[in-house]
């Protein structure tokens, strides 16, 4: 640790937005982040710069060249390196005192209890196509009485959903059922993230390849996701209840200069949402007949 570094000096410019007492409270808090790719890595850096004192981090993946357009830590010198180790070191370079608990196998049924224990809020940074892991994350958060946040990088914009441990669950909002196949779960997730689908005005669905688990992405969107998540997480870390939790949803698209929010009282079970799911599936199958 550099002799010139101190916690109070490093995060002194947060004061005025946080009181000195609030900064110390943030210092004593722990945030659990599952997935350190496009959004999760930036979530960590954003909250490390806020001065959060501890993190639980889960990821098993390694950096590759297709990550370069959006993922924090994706550089020529990190190709093939473990994302968890690279991003953890970046957090230590911001705050040498930070306490990191690393889950190198990613989030699994075997470690999810340890991942949530001791955390004050849980953040979703899991790969868009990894629905099973995401469902496990939100079930675990609810069981531990924790708020869980997700923000989807869609097009050049971002969404925000906050799930309260006592409110509408992630499973109910997205209308997930164990009998659903993977494609139907992905479609439910897409439609539930952005009920007004601002990004579909310019996003090419033909570029979404479910079987290859790839789709259009943007570093702009990932940065915006972490801004939304960070602002919401601050309130929770300071014991301020979020004003609007699911079934409230939010989407901001700076490319279109549009911001929408709404209250989806039946979640994805709403008749309009069911119709959107059917239409989206038809469109995906038409443009990607190899999906099935």
Outline:
By secondary structure, the protein is an alpha/beta fold. Helix content is 36%, strand content 15%.
Strand content range = 5-15%
Q: What sequence of helices (H) and strands (E) makes up the elements?
A: HHEHEHEHEHEEEHHHEEH
Query: Total helix count?
Result: 10
Structural class: alpha/beta
Number of strands: 9
Which bin fits the share of residues in helices?
A: 25-40%
Uncertain segments of ≥5 residues (pLDDT<50)?
none
What is the global morphology? Answer: globular
Q: Main sheet, how many strands, which sense, barrel?
A: 9 strands, mixed
Distance between the termini: 54 Å
Q: What's the pLDDT, averaged over the residues?
A: 96
Cα-based radius of gyration, to the nearest Å: 19 Å
Q: Which secondary structure elements does this structure contain, and how are they paired or packed?
A:
Elements: H1 7-10, H2 20-27, E1 30-34, H3 40-50, E2 54-58, H4 83-94, E3 99-103, H5 112-116, E4 121-124, H6 131-143, E5 148-150, E6 153-154, E7 157-163, H7 170-174, H8 182-193, H9 219-237, E8 248-253, E9 258-263, H10 271-287
Parallel strand pairs: 1-2, 1-4, 2-3, 4-5
Antiparallel strand pairs: 5-7, 6-7, 7-8, 8-9
Note down, in words, how this protein is organized.
- With 292 residues, this protein is α/β, with parallel strands linked by helices.
- Helices cover 36% and strands 15% of the residues.
- It has helices at residues 7-10, 20-27, 40-50, 83-94, 112-116, 131-143, 170-174, 182-193, 219-237, 271-287; strands spanning 30-34, 54-58, 99-103, 121-124, 148-150, 153-154, 157-163, 248-253, 258-263.
- Strands 1, 2, 3, 4, 5, 6, 7, 8 and 9 form a nine-stranded mixed beta sheet that branches.
- β8 and β9 (258-263) form a beta hairpin.
- It is globular.
- The protein starts with 6 loop residues before the first helix and ends in a 5-residue tail after the last helix.
